[in-house]
Amino acid sequence: SVRAFKDAGVSYATAFNGIEAVEKAKSEKPALILLDIMMPGIDGFAVLNNLKKDPQTAKIPVWMLTNLPGQMNKELAASLGAVEYLVKSDNPPSKFIEKINLFLSSI
C-alpha cells in the first residue's frame, strides 16, 4: 500500500488512471514504475505497451503489481517489457519495499 512506501521513506508518485500514469512517467522520469493491471481508462497492459513504445519512457523499468495471478498475465506482462510481476496477495507491503530497495540499489 501507499502507506507502506511512505512509512519506509520511499519517494513515490501516484496516478489515478492509465492516461495519467503515462503522462507522469514522461514528465517525472521515475527510476521505477509500479503498475497495476486493473486501472480506470486504459488497463495496465496498455499502459505498459505505451511506455515501452515511447522513447521517453522505454528504458524505465516497470514492475506489474497486481491482484491478478496467472501465468498468462505474467507472460503477457513480460512480453510487453515488464521486469517483474508481483501478486499483491502473495507479498506483504514490507516484502515489496525490500524488493524495491534491493532493485534500486542495483541500478
TrEMBL record:
Enumerate the spans annotated as Response regulatory domain: 1-103
Q: Which PROSITE patterns match?
A: RESPONSE_REGULATORY (PS50110)
Known Pfam families for this protein? Response_reg
In its UniProt record, which GO terms are filed under biological process?
phosphorelay signal transduction system
The UniProt keyword set, sorted, is:
Phosphoprotein
| Annotated InterPro entries | Bact_response_regulator, CheY-like_superfamily, Sig_transdc_resp-reg_receiver
Q: Where is the signal peptide?
A: none
Residue positions of the PTM 4-aspartylphosphate?
36
The molecule here is called Response regulatory domain-containing protein
